[in-house]
């Protein structure tokens, strides 16, 4: 039996305490209802558990977590997946700013649009490769200072038809990892030292793998997602800023 | 003197919230309180405040001065000043309630006034001259009467603010007893400037009110620029300049609202380079002419006036802002949950783009003294802007 909890009467610190107590007792499944602005949910949890969240969780959902799989039926606010290490966050709505900040492992799947500075400072090490898949459009500074990991931007499920698929300063300061974009971006949107490339080698295989999982999470058709060509944005040398004194 | 404790710099964010009813129907204070309290952790108890529009319908033609004074003597000086320079229709203490956690609050009183003019001026007196005179009087009180500040001076509106958490300040000012067609609220986490009663938000001038999350790093430049035009910054806090910049750009120079926002949060030169020729010329001119009005640094602001509510971010969106609407009501806040706390099922929720204002004006003719700043205004109203041609541009660039 999952722990089914109506959290609206509780402060976020109480909710997190209840969750931790039940994890210690061996609970593996959680359903949280009436969530609205509760911060740091599942923050720092390193157990293999699963959770469903109904509502709008507050800032830093799943920050520093190592293991949980969280499915959110609603939108998430700023800082979801902040420095997360393992596990997965699936968002059936939109996301705010700085999602996946300094992420070092695990996956974040977002159905709709995301805000500014998503995936900044992402990194990777050995088998740990964090992945963010965005179904909608992204604001400025996507993947800024990215050192590793993968961001896939689809631009399909958006409430902003008037906006470009990604904002300005895309990947500014990036020196590792890759950003895949379904469609095109203007070169003037990219940070210095970056170039858009056509897919090559293992790229297609890799994309297909990640997108298959994404599509399963939301009940989407993979063939529909793959109908359009992708480009890959990645730094063209290992140290693109070695000779750059100031931007 | 005011007990102003300068604290070490702290890092966090403030919380803001705003509601507007497009048809001018009144919204109970309870609503805005719920929205701002949902963002409780965004503040640290060193400031909170509310602005309410439509709260003085019987005295809607008088400037409602909310005065905050440290002593009775200071208040007497304000009253002598008002006696001399204004017609006073009505005055009363602002109703407050004792709150355990609020120690030694200042005295609050409200005065409903119209400025006096001497005979020569009176012949030419019109509404904009009255506004100008009122601005002068407010600046003079704030600058010269020690221990007293006018914290709001608009018609049919008022600001209520102080040191405390939002629920404490709301209880102190009995916010639940007011109803307004526009509300804004602030939960403060002062970082660079003291947490004192005058430094709480909203900041106001005439019916402009502003709440702000972030910091105006260009405060010094903006302050010096505004001083050229007679604005005095006396409240020891960066946000104050925004209220005066708005008054200056929109009321004095007649810039349409959207362009005024673009002067405060201008597009990058690289964006201007990609514009059509006509647009490029316009935005180049705005950046050159109003360089001193550019607000640099991270900010999300909400500002309101008799007729509208506007949300604006800095041009790289370093502070959060979410907007939503349902029916005739529009909501803006730092966090989506603050909106959902009072409107669980909005028809539309969106994150405004950096530097692009969300402007919500009320339907025409639904409130007294209604203002609209969407369009360029007629020649006589914006004559100040036309006169700009005779200024050396270097002076205006601050």
From TrEMBL, chain A:
GO terms for molecular function: oxidoreductase activity. The lineage of its organism: Bacteria, Pseudomonadati, Thermodesulfobacteriota, Thermodesulfobacteria, Thermodesulfobacteriales. This is Glutamate synthase alpha subunit C-terminal domain-containing protein. Residues 12-187 form the Glutamate synthase alpha subunit C-terminal domain. Transmembrane segments: none annotated. InterPro entries: Archaeal_gltB, Glu_synth_asu_C, Glu_synth_asu_C_sf, Glu_synth_lsu_3. It comes from Caldimicrobium thiodismutans. It comes from the Bacteria. Pfam families: GXGXG (PF01493).
TrEMBL record, chain B:
Pfam families: GATase_2. The active site is at residue 14. Residues 14-363 form the Glutamine amidotransferase type-2 domain. This is Glutamine amidotransferase type-2 domain-containing protein. It comes from Caldimicrobium thiodismutans. The lineage of its organism: Bacteria, Pseudomonadati, Thermodesulfobacteriota, Thermodesulfobacteria, Thermodesulfobacteriales.
């Amino acid at each position: 039996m999952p722990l089914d909890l109506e959290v609206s009467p509780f402060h976020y610190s109480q909710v997190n305490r209840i969750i931790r107590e039940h994890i210690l007792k061996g609970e593996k499944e959680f359903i949280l209802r009436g969530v609205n602005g509760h911060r740091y949910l599942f923050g720092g949890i390193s157990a293999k558990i699963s959770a469903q969240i109904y509502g709008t969780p507050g800032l830093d959902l799943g920050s520093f977590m190592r293991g949980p799989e969280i499915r959110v039926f609603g939108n998430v606010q700023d800082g979801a997946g902040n420095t997360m290490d393992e596990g997965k966050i699936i968002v059936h709505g939109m996301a705010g700013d700085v999602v996946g900040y300094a992420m070092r492992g695990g996956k974040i799947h977002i159905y709709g649009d995301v805000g500014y500075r998503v995936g900044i400072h992402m990194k990777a090490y050995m088998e740990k490769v964090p992945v963010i898949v965005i179904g909608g459009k992204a604001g400025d500074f996507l993947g800024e200072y990215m050192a590793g990991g993968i961001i896939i931007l689809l631009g399909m499920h958006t409430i902003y038809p008037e906006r470009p698929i990604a904002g300005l300063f895309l990947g500014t300061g990036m020196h590792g990892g890759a950003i895949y974009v379904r469609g095109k971006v203007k070169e003037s949107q990219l940070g210095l030292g970056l170039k858009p490339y056509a897919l090559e080698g293992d790229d297609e295989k890799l994309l297909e793998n990640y997108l298959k999982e994404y599509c399963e999470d939301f009940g989407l058709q993979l063939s529909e997602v793959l109908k359009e060509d992708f480009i890959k944005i990645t730094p063209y040398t290992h140290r693109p800023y070695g000779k750059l004194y100031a931007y | 003197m005011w007990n102003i404790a300068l604290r070490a710099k702290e890092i966090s964010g403030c919380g803001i919230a705003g509601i507007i009813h497009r048809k001018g129907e009144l919204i109970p204070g309870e609503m805005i309180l719920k929205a701002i309290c949902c963002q409780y952790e965004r503040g640290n108890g060193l400031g909170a405040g509310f602005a309410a529009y439509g709260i003085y319908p019987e005295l809607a033609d008088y400037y409602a001065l909310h005065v905050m004074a440290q002593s009775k003597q200071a208040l007497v000086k304000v009253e002598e000043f008002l006696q001399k320079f204004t017609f006073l229709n009505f005055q009363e203490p602002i109703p407050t309630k004792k709150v355990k956690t609020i120690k030694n609050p200042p005295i609050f009183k409200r005065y409903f006034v119209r400025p006096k003019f001497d005979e020569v001026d009176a012949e030419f007196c019109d509404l904009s001259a009255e506004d100008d005179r009122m601005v002068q009087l407010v600046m003079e009180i704030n600058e010269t009467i020690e221990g007293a500040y006018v914290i709001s001076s608009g018609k049919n509106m008022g600001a209520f603010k102080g040191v405390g958490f939002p629920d404490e300040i709301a209880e102190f000012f009995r916010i639940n007893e007011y109803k307004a067609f526009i509300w804004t609220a602030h939960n403060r986490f002062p970082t660079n400037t003291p947490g004192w009663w005058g430094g709480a938000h909203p900041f106001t001038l005439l019916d402009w009110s502003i709440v702000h999350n972030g910091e105006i790093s260009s405060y010094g430049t903006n302050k010096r620029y505004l001083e050229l035009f007679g604005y005095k910054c006396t409240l020891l806090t960066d946000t104050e300049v925004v209220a005066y910049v708005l008054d200056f750009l929109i009321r004095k120079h007649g810039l349409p609202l959207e362009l005024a926002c673009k002067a405060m949060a201008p597009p990058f030169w690289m964006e201007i380079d990609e514009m059509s020729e006509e647009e490029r010329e316009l935005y180049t001119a705005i950046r050159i002419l109003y360089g001193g009005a550019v607000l640099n640094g991270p900010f999300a602001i909400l500002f309101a006036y008799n007729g509208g509510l506007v949300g604006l971010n800095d041009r790289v969106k370093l502070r959060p802002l979410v907007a939503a609407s349902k029916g005739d009501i529009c909501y803006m806040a730092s966090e989506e949950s603050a909106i959902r706390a009072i409107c669980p099922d909005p028809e539309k929720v969106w994150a405004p783009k950096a530097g692009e204002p969300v402007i919500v004006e009320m339907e025409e003719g639904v409130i007294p003294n209604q203002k609209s700043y969407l369009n360029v205004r007629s020649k006589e109203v914006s004559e100040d802007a036309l006169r700009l041609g005779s200024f050396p541009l270097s002076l205006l660039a601050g």
